[in-house]
Amino acid sequence: MSDSPAYQPAPQAPAGAPAVVPGKTLGIVALILAFFFQLLALILGIVALNQSKGTGYSNAPAKWAIWLSIIFMVLGIIIAIVVLSTASFVVYSN
Questions:
Q1: Which of 14, 37, 51, 82 is 20 to 30 A off residue 75, Cα-Cα?
Q2: Separation CA 43–CA 72 (nearest Å)
Q3: Tens digit of pLDDT for each residue in 25-51?
Q4: What phi, psi does 37 have (nearest 5°)?
Q5: How far apart are CA 44 and CA 10, in angstroms?
Q6: Which residue ranges make up each domain of the chain?
């Protein structure tokens, strides 16, 4: 007989992989793009939200991406109008 310790068998791994929310990665990408490319982020956010809705999941990053894209696009349009109208006023006032 040897004095070596008796080893216990290794514990079993969990049976299934964790559930993956469809469209979540696309929603995160859209959220990041919302700060730089609003139109592309809006499109990707809508696609990600539709993918998640189809399977019954909620996709918060996609919703945030949609809202931020809309807000930033509206702000960009307002700023462009103000800048262009100010520039044309300065050019024609001289």
A1: 51
A2: 14
A3: 999 999 999 999 999 999 999 999 999
A4: -130, 90
A5: 44
A6: 24-93
Q: Is the pTM of this model over 0.90?
A: no
CA of 51: how far to CAs of 22, 39, 48, 68, 93, in Å?
6, 19, 5, 19, 53
**Phi, psi (5° rounding) for residue 71?**
-60, -45
Is the backbone of residue 2 left (phi > 0), alpha (psi -120 to 50) or beta?
Answer: beta
Asked whether the beta carbons of 62 and 48 are under 8 A apart, the reply is: yes
In the numeric block, the tokens 């991406």 are attached to 65
- The answer to whether the beta carbons of residues 36 and 65 sit under 8 Å apart is no
33: tokens are 């793009």
Encoding tokens for residue 8? 């216990």
